[in-house]
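Appendix B. One record, verbatim.
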Amino acid sequence: MNILNNARSHIEYYFFVSANIIYVLINKTAVPSPDTTGYLSFDPGRSSVYPIFINAVKALSGNFFPHILLILQTGFYLWACVLFVRKFSAMFKMQRIYTISMLLYFTYILFIMNRPRVMYTESLAYPLFLVLLISCFKWISSLKLKDLLAVSGLLLFLLQLRGQFLFMIPLLIVFVILLYWRKLRTTILLCSLIVAVFLTNSLIDRSYHAIVHGYFHPTPFTGHTISALPLYISKAEDVEHIADPEEKIVFETIHRSLQEKGMLAESFGEFRKFEFSKAYNEIIWHTVCPVFQEESRGDGDLDFDDYKFMNSTMISISMQLIKCNPGRYFKALLHNFATGISKINIAPFFLTLFILIYFSIKKFLKIYIFILFNLFGALLNYVLITISVFSYPRISWYSSVMIFTSILILISEITNKQSSTQNM
């Protein structure tokens, strides 16, 4: 009878495990993404973790590579989700309905967003971020050094997987100051620890490229991605503000091509997110990269020298375009940010924030720090996305899950208070 009762009390977890097994049986193999070739070939524009992981799996599994990869990625997702839900539910004394809600949400991510099946960084980044998030909650709850060290180690690994997680650096620094401000020496030491994570990440990144590509240099991927928005709002006469003759030629070539394709803001009359999201891939992958491919060898591949040259050139051009168009750029940036927070996210975000402020005015509780951590983290991620690309579900999910868990924490706190009041 005890075994039966125990099974019933964990039935939602059995359902989630079954859903993951069904997912593997239905899909059978992992499928490539447009980025997969770059990971398999150790492309210079990719950071270390996923190329090493996917090539190791391929080397060990042979002809069964796509099958084994799907099993590994789905299994890792399953483990991380169950770990997160169990620890989260226990930490915040969640009622069972909220536990079920979380597992249903992660089942939706599994089947609809299809993350574990695809050969890209998100297959590892999604589950690892859940582990990082629950580790952050544990640190905020305990304020122990060992828990912050665990967070630092996880973050360092995630930064090697996706540079996007840089938004966690200022987030952790702010909350170290908030939580330890009475102890100045401790605050300085712990902030130094977070800064050390950033510096160590740079060192590992450079060392990886030194070993694999022969260059002690950071991943040269920033330049051409941040150039999308400055190029999108640019005008032909902006060439007059570019000093370097070689950069002038590059800009004129890119701008002429984008004008012919109708992929500039002036082609649409004004900045709108829909047009920019359409134009982004055309600007970066079908215009900027081909220009540098033609300048190098014209064989369709860019080596590390080509990536370095493209990176430095496009950063320089972007800075000059922003300098001569500050009003247009920051207006477009603000518009990109405002529209980037999708309608699904913006309402829950501000609703949670307003409810939090209301309850904080009445009485501030430590539980609100967890919600503030999530909301500020979601905001920082959106800011980083806005500067580099534009918001779309694949990269904004980290903000979505932080907002979702904030809502659950707040609702659980309210319902738990109501239950305790009724029992008195």
